[in-house]
Amino acid sequence: MPELPEVETTRRGIATIMTGRVLERFTVYESRMRWPIPADMGSRVTGQQVLSCERRGKYLLLNFAHGTQIVHLGMSGSIRRAPLDQPRLKHDHVEWVFGDARFLLHDPRRFGAVLWHDLADGPLSGHPLLARLGIEPFDANFTGRHLHQGLKGKTQAIKQALLAGHIVVGVGNIYASEALFKARINPQARSGSLSLARCETLATAIRQTLTQALESGGSTLRDYVNATGEAGAYFSLHAAVYDHAGKPCAICETPIRRIIQGQRATYYCPVCQRR
Q1: Quick one: pLDDT band at residue 220, thresholds 50, 70, 90?
Q2: Nearest 5°: phi and psi at 183?
Q3: Catalytic residues, which ones?
Q4: 77: closest CA among 180, 275, 221?
Q5: Which residues make beta-bridge pairs with 142?
Q6: How far apart are CA 198 and CA 174, in angstroms?
Q7: What's the CA gap between 169 and 178, in Å, rounded?
Q8: What CA–CA distance (Å, rounded) separates 237 from 235?
Q9: Which residues are within 8 A (CB) of 118 and not within 5 positions of it... i.e. 6 or more apart?
Q10: Is 46:25 a contact under the CB 8 Å cutoff?
Q11: Could you tell me the sign of the dihedral formed by the alpha carbons of 44, 49, 50, 52, in that order?
């Protein structure tokens, strides 16, 4: 699944072209996504200027004067720039055209979404998909103390608490495993048992992991490509545990272990990350 680094990489790619330009054509080829794309979406945004391209958690936000398109890439979606005369691929479901610039939402599983939040409906932050999201990991207020306070009293495993996104957003399955390895914290550890010092270490590890992913263009899992159609290089450059089951730990050479938590694969070193 595209996680925060992949979504932010996509945002940076489209923002340089979309921002300040008028959307000349918006076409929906398949409306049956995770939630149906509103039938009147085209009439709402065609001919309107994109004021900014932002991100909240894993959601892309295309802001217009009268509202915002909320875009989610789902399990295997991507947005890429394509030549105007290039035939659509089989799973290209949505198209944005800005003069000589054309973008396509490619989503084989159709778990993504393109929704509309009208300015008349109140602040965007109150939208049901955004209202319960935690702090952004690169926000100056995301500290070990913030993390420690949010985890206080929680009995769920620390990895599951990170994935929930209520304390800090964007720490998805891949990067949660990597950050916990950096912090030497077992993914099964009870959230509320972590000391302030360990939360400080984990907060730093989360920022370091996501920074590395951003600098390398994200992961290469599944069908993810960035806005120019290029795959990320995070796994070849930085991954220490994710998808490394049975391989030796880079620190102690103990085989990396794979377990299932909440129906998601978790990878960790049983020696470096003791409970």
Answers
A1: very low
A2: -85, -5
A3: 2-3, 58, 264
A4: 221
A5: none
A6: 20
A7: 16
A8: 5
A9: 66, 67
A10: yes
A11: negative
